[in-house]
Amino acid sequence: MSPPHFFFFSAFFLGLTSLTFFRTHLLSALLCLEAMMLSLLLALSLWTLELNSTNSAASPMFLLAFSACEASTGLALLVATARTHGTDHLQNLNLLQC
Hints:
It is built from three helices and no strands.
């Protein structure tokens, strides 16, 4: 395994483990998800460069667009949660309440 591949795999799994262990606040969970998406974007870009193919050149841009949409949706949920509940603790959120 080459050093860039090891770096991207370790960055993804570091984001995944931090998501599982440090999920007390919604903001920290969103930051972990963004770190995972960034490592996937970099790995997909590296894979596209290694293939030297123009067929898969647009896939990193699609992933970047989806991650931007995910970030904006997550921040909107964070603002709505902070306004309604007064905090961003994930333990205070109950999915069964309206």
